[in-house]
Amino acid sequence: MAIRSILINVEDVKRSVDFYTRYLGAEVVEASDDSAVLDAVAGQLRLVRLGAGAGGAGAGGAGGGDASTWIPDDLQAGFRHVGFKVADMDARVDALHKGGVPFHLEPIHAEGDVRITFFYDPDGTLLELVEGPLQYHEVFDREAVDADWALGTPTRPRFDHVAETVNDLEATKQYFGELGYSLMSGIHQPSDDRGFEIAFLRDGDTSLEIFTYEKVEKSKRQPQLEAPGFLAVEFEGGMPPGAESVGTRAGLEIVADPDGLLHAVTGS
C-alpha cells in the first residue's frame, strides 16, 4: 500500500467524520476534537482540525485557517480529486442528494466504460465515485492491471486514487518512480480538444491518476497548509529528489512535487 493516507484539513472533525462514515462507508479508527483517522479499505483518511497543530508556510491562527486558493478547474496543476471505487453508485448518489451534498458532476458514463460522479465534502475536497472496472485504452503493465481488477467489487467504498494535473508526464513518472510507482495504463479523451490524456501510475492497491493537457496552459497554486479541504498525500518510501519542503502539519514534513501536489513521505 504505497499511499498510507489522505490528509484533509477540516473545520469540524465531528461533522467530517459523520460525512465520511455516512456517505463513504469509512470506519473510525480513532477520533478526538482535533483529529480523526478513518479506514477507507485501501488507505486511511486523516482529518486534522484547522487551527490544531498549525505550523509552517501559510499557517493560520486558531480561527479556522486561510481561504483556499484551490479551484475546480483541471487546468490548475496539482491536486484535483480523491477517487473511491463503489458497487452501488445509484444508492450512494441518492443518499448524497437527500443529504443536500453539493455535486460538481452528476453521474455519467465515462471513457473506459465506467460510471463516475463528483461531489464535495464539507470542507470543499472534491471526491469521485467510480463504478465498474476501468477498461484502459493502453496497458503498459499487464500484471499491475490484473492486480487492480483482482481487487474486485468493493463491499464498501474503497479508496482508489488521487488525481493530479501535471505539465510533464515524463518528469512526473521519474519523480514518483522514486516512491515505487510505474506507468500502468492510460485512457484517451478523444472528444476533448485540449489534448487531455489520463495516465495511471501504480504502486500497491492505489493509483495516481495523472492528467495532462498538451494544447492549453496550466496555472499553478501556491502551497497552503492551513486552508480547508485536501491537504496532502502521505506516501510510503523515500523522499524523491526535487521535493520542495513547504512546512509541517499534523506532525509531518509536507513537501511539494514540481506541479504543487503536497505530500509527506513517512517511510516503509
UniProtKB/TrEMBL annotation:
Q: Which domain of life is it from?
A: Bacteria
Instruction: Give the Gene Ontology MF terms in alphabetical order.
Output: metal ion binding; methylmalonyl-CoA epimerase activity
State the InterPro entries in the record. Answer: Glyas_Bleomycin-R_OHBP_Dase, Glyas_Fos-R_dOase_dom, MMCE/EMCE_epimerase, VOC_core
A Pfam family assignment? Glyoxalase
> Which segments constitute the VOC domain?
2-132
- For the keyword Metal-binding, the answer is yes
Q: Which UniProt keywords apply?
A: Metal-binding
Q: Which GO terms describe its biological process?
A: L-methylmalonyl-CoA metabolic process
Q: Hey, what's the signal peptide range on this chain?
A: none
- Protein name as catalogued: VOC domain-containing protein
Tell me the organism.
Answer: Subtercola boreus
Q: What is the lineage of its organism?
A: Bacteria, Bacillati, Actinomycetota, Actinomycetes, Micrococcales
